Amino acid sequence: MAVERTFSIIKPDAAARNLTGAINAMIEQAGLRIIAQKRVRIGRTEAETFYAVHRERPFFGELVDFMISGPVVVQVLQGENAIAKYRDLMGATDPSKAAAGTIRKTHAKSIGENSVHGSDAPDTAAKEIAQFFSGNEIVG
Ligand code: CMP
Q1: Which of 12, 49, 79, 86 has the greatest number of beta carbons closer than 10 A?
Q2: Is-catalytic flag, 107?
Q3: Residue 18 CB neighbours (<10 A)
Q4: Angle of CA points 76, 69, 45, to nearest 5°
């Protein structure tokens, strides 16, 4: 299995509830290493660019408003099979459908306020990491 990198966001609902440490503990217990991390406020244009693939979806406006509503923690995670491993750890997008022990089952409030984002494929992971981090901020 290959060592991969994936991009993670601890979203405003989780950052506001002081869940960064609890979520990071779950990430590390799953065997992923946090190789870059910073707390930021995402701007509207930045959020619209990040979620451009969802632009035509009915929830796009709500999604962007939520993601700029408060601080988030952006991260790069590294490990064997990191992209799939983190998606498994996050659980289903809708927390009511997420498996026990996942981040979303444990912490998320709703399908919109679902606590975490993780990349869905290697090309999106590379693009998402590059949107938020320069090379010298990532220490693997
Ligand atoms: P994320 O993994 O960040 O990618 C897109 C996001 O859109 C997703 O998590 C959800 O938070 C959000 N989303 C998906 N479906 C809905 C919905 N029906 N209503 C509001 N937000 C949604």
Answers
A1: 86
A2: no
A3: 8
A4: 70
| Beta bridge mates, 110 | none
If pLDDT is split at 50, 70 and 90, which confidence band does 1 have? confident
Ligand 1 near 63 CB (within 6 A): yes
Ligand 1 centroid to Cα of residue 136, in Å, is 31
Q: Kindly report the protein residue whose alpha carbon is nearest to atom 21 of ligand 1.
A: 112
- Nearest residue to 25 (alpha-carbon basis) of 113, 89, 93, 117: 89
Contacts with 58 (C-beta within 8 Å, 6 or more apart), sequence order: none
What value does the mean pLDDT take over residues 33-49? 98
Q: What share of the chain in percent tops pLDDT 90?
A: 99
Q: Which of 82, 107, 117, 118 is catalytic?
A: 117
